[in-house]
């Protein structure tokens, strides 16, 4: 059987000899290396992937049996093998897709019942005296709703929403200051209902509400799969929205964890968000690999990260309202695919998930794009932009946003040669050694890859599509790399050690026996605490 990894290594050596620009000698390049669905265009023509390379990348999809793994996920098989769980966040947006079976049982009646209860609750809150909603959660119980509420602010017609995640008291103190405890709803979002940050913040919020004339027995809701623990905390079951363990934290925005989003934009717009996700699921399940957006997005990622060796990936939304998307995708990608051991238990023979980072354009242009254009490392860039904004009266702003986005991907590919830089300097009146010296600083190597995802407007449906697209991309990358994208054992050790260190930091136990560095830090803390 052909080993497509080896093919790709050979193709990489050949690609190093050509520039991305020369691939456009083929007049069909843009058409052939982009993909349109009814609602969006994914352009990967500005990468060094040619037909042969794409063929070998698609060979990896076959080699890893991606479509069989995909079908196993949608069929409710326990593909999260280290936790023996199914992976069915897709069921949460399966509005009219029929039964979804887990261990012989259709889970859809329960999913739709919870969704209906959420709609009722959201309508009630939106029509009540509640002016502010505070979502307390962290990681997947925070990043998704925080990102989406901001992304969809033009559709926000419910109470104001605030998000508290950090155990740093500054976060909750700054958030609660200025809120009226009598008109605030606190939503405690925690799948496990044991996360130390969330439970500490929840208790602080409860005390604040009591002390300021609010009624926690009426103004607290919970989103969790641990119903015994929500009851223990004293939250009325009527305001508890549960979900099953087959919804991973970083994939949970589609269900109860999305309650703050539903309260913000209303149940109808939330449905539209779910339908966007469901449409991407349908595309992912039906389209041939060569025409499949999540698969192609994953293959571009594999090419850049595992084959070309570019360790990071920049996510660059040209949309201020998507400013939190890089952080959201950081968790989605890095918690899912940041592993070193394969499903088989063997060590991975290659690097796994990339380092994901980024910020909204155009701001990033005035911060870190210098490195992206002229730094010694290549950073593959993923641009996202809407053809239209939501402010018709500010169309000229959006024109500038679009032109900047297109200019950046063009500049990354084209670069500027030494000859062109010399010409620039000559026109400025320089000559001789000074011209030569100044020109060198103005050279752009170019030939730097990027992709662009473009859509008509960032509405709830489109946001649903984008999030589902990235979820499936992470899944495909995980299958090709042979890792389990759905556990997160790497977060456990730090949690355990923090618990063990607590009495030492509080001064109740001596740091004797600790490594010298940790003991020294504890000593400094003891000496300098008020
Ligand atoms: O620490 C990692 C993690 O388990 C994430 O996977 C999760 O999204 C987050 O913590 C919050 O967990 P919970 O929703 O159980 O509070």
Detailed description of the structure:
There is one protein chain. By secondary structure, the protein is of the alpha/beta class. The chain folds into three domains: 4-63 and 287-414 and 448-487, Glucose-6-phosphate isomerase like protein, domain 1 (Rossmann fold, 3-Layer(aba) Sandwich), CATH 3.40.50.10490; 89-273, Rossmann fold (3-Layer(aba) Sandwich), CATH 3.40.50.10490; 494-528, Phosphoglucose isomerase, C-terminal domain. Helix content is 48%, strand content 11%. The chain has helices at residues 4-15, 29-32, 51-63, 66-74, 108-126, 143-151, 169-176, 196-211, 216-219, 227-233, 259-265, 267-286, 293-307, 325-337, 369-374, 395-414, 418-427, 432-441, 460-481, 492-506, 516-528; strands spanning 34-36, 41-43, 101-102, 105-106, 132-136, 160-164, 184-189, 220-224, 240-242, 312-317, 355-358, 381-386, 450-455. The protein has a six-stranded mixed sheet with strand order 1-2-13-12-10-11, with helices on both faces. Strand 1 and strand 2 (41-43) form a beta hairpin. Helix 17 (418-427) crosses helix 18. The longest helix is centred in the last third of the chain and has 22 residues, at 460-481. It is globular and about 75 Å long. The mean pLDDT is 97. Bound molecules: 6-O-phosphono-beta-D-fructofuranose. 6-O-phosphono-beta-D-fructofuranose is lined by residues 138-141, 190-192, 195, 198, 249-250, 335, 488, 491.
Strand order of the largest sheet: 1-2-13-12-10-11
What compounds sit in this structure? 6-O-phosphono-beta-D-fructofuranose
Percent helix, as a range, is 40-55%
Task: State the CATH topology of the largest domain.
Answer: Rossmann fold
Question: How would you sum up the global shape?
Answer: globular
Euclidean distance between termini CA atoms: 68 Å
Biggest sheet details: 6 strands, mixed
Per CATH, the architecture of the largest domain is 3-Layer(aba) Sandwich
The CATH superfamily title of the largest domain: Glucose-6-phosphate isomerase like protein, domain 1
| Rg calc | 25 Å
Number of strands: 13
Strand content: 5-15%
> What is the CATH first-level class name of the largest domain?
Alpha Beta
SS class = alpha/beta
Given as residue ranges, the uncertain stretches (5+ residues, pLDDT < 50) are: none
Number of helices: 21
């Amino acid at each position: 059987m052909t080993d497509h990894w080896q093919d790709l290594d050979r193709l990489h050596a050949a690609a190093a000899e050509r520039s991305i620009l020369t691939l456009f000698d083929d007049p069909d390049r843009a058409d052939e290396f982009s993909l349109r669905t009814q609602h969006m265009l994914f352009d990967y023509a500005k990468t060094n992937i040619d037909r042969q390379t794409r063929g070998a990348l698609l060979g990896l999809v076959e080699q890893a049996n991606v479509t069989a793994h995909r079908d196993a996920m949608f069929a409710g098989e326990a593909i999260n093998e280290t936790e023996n769980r199914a992976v069915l966040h897709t069921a949460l947006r399966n509005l009219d897709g029929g039964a979804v079976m887990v261990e012989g049982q259709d889970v859809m009646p329960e999913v739709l019942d919870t969704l209906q209860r959420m709609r009722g609750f959201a309508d009630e809150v939106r029509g009540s005296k509640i002016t502010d909603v505070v979502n307390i959660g962290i990681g997947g119980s925070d990043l998704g709703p925080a990102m989406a509420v901001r992304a969809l602010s033009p559709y926000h017609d419910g109470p104001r929403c605030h998000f508290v995640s950090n155990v740093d008291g500054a976060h909750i103190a700054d958030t609660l200051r200025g809120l009226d405890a009598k008109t605030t709803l606190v939503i405690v979002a925690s799948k496990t209902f044991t996360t130390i940050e969330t439970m500490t913040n929840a208790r602080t919020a409860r005390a604040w509400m009591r002390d300021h004339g609010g009624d926690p027995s009426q103004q607290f809701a919970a989103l969790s799969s641990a119903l015994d623990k929500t009851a223990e905390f004293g939250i009325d079951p009527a305001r508890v929205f549960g979900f099953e363990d087959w919804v991973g934290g970083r994939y949970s925005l589609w269900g109860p964890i999305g309650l703050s989003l539903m309260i913000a934009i209303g149940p109808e717009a939330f449905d539209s968000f779910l339908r966007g996700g469901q449409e991407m699921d349908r595309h992912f399940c039906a389209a041939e690999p060569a025409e499949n957006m999540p698969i192609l997005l994953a293959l571009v990622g594999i090419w850049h990260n595992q084959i070309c060796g570019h360790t990071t990936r920049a996510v660059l939304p040209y949309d201020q309202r998507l400013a939190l998307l890089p952080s959201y995708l950081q968790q989605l990608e890095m918690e899912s695919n940041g592993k070193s051991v394969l499903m088989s238990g063997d060590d991975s023979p290659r690097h796994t998930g990339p380092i994901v980072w980024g910020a909204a354009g155009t701001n990033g242009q005035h911060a870190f794009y210098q490195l992206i254009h002229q730094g010694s490392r290549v950073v593959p860039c993923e641009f996202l932009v809407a053809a239209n904004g939501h402010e018709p009266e500010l169309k000229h702003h959006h024109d500038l946003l679009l032109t900047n986005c297109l200019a950046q991907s063009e500049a990354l590919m084209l670069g500027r040669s030494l000859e062109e830089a010399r010409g620039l300097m000559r026109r400025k009146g320089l000559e001789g050694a000074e011209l030569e010296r100044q020109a060198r600083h103005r050279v752009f190597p170019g030939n730097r890859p990027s992709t662009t995802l473009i859509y008509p407007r960032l509405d709830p449906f489109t946001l649903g599509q984008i999030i589902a697209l990235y979820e499936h991309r992470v899944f495909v990358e995980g299958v090709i790399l042979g890792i389990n994208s759905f556990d997160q054992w790497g977060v456990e050790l730090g949690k355990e050690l923090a618990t063990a260190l607590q009495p030492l930091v509080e001064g109740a136990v001596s740091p004797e026996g600790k490594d010298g560095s940790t003991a020294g830090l504890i000593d400094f803390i003891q000496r300098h605490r008020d």
